[in-house]
Amino acid sequence: MTEDYAARGEILKLARVLGVEPGRLEYLARVDADDLQAFREQVTDTLFDANIAALQRMAMAARLLPGGVLAKIAEKVFGPLLCARIAGLVDVSRGVDVARRLRPEFLAEVAADLDPRRASAIITRIPLETVLAVAKELTRKEDWITLGRFVGHLPDPTVRRALEEIDDPGLLRIAFVLDDKKRIDHVVGLLPAHRLGRLITAAGTDEDLWTPALDLLTHLSDARRATLEPMLGGLPAGLRERAQATIK
Amino acid sequence: MAERTLADQLGGYLPEGIEALEEHERQDLADALRDARRRQAKALAEAGEEGLRYVPALLRGAVRKAVGL
Fold first, then answer.
1. What pTM value is reported for the model?
2. To the nearest whole angstrom, how far is the Cα of A32 from the nearest Cα of chain B?
3. B1 lies in a domain?
């Protein structure tokens, strides 16, 4: 079952990269999640490298312009997709300077198209207030995929603050599409002690959250799973049995 | 002219699970990737000229040269 959950998350992410509806890629549900992730990374790299020479020239030209002018061009002309493609090519200090001048709504759109692996140096230097504003906007848009892609690239204190702003169903959905599932237990460790139990309880109120909750359980350490055992009895039948089977 | 296959577009190698898909499914992925590349190239081409309108006149020549326009 674990692979099935992971494949569903990967299909959502691949659909985002390709700019298509996830339903179109339903036939990928039978492909191994590791193969899907490898394929998504190939597609991402191909798209980012497709116009690399022109993008590099633009990044070079950006050095000649004041930050305010660049921010205006970014929002009015380039739009989120091209900003995302160029972000990994501009000087880090210049990238941070421009990002601080952009509206959180626009930055949230850029974030959706960004490859965090390529822009990590900029992402980690963006001020906390800006990150929180962007996280708030992504939460409002229910863009769990983008939030999940950034968790592995932000410092722990920033992740902790951002998670405070997101409700329990939102956290479950983010964990489900997290890029690096090995980090789930670490990220859960950043939450206040009572929050994990609340997450599982929240899943009981909405059947759409069962799959994300069960997937979360498969990625927790044995010690953390053990703390959840006493509260599984309160879950609705169906979810309870599957949760109990998952944490055994 | 024949469209490039999925493997061609991705440098020749496909993960095993993708390689094992039906041909029409791989073709669908190839079409989606080709469309995404075209959208990106179009956006880039339009942005180059349009962006110059916001560049201060004094810097326009230098920027035009750097961008290769």
1. 0.84
2. 6
3. no
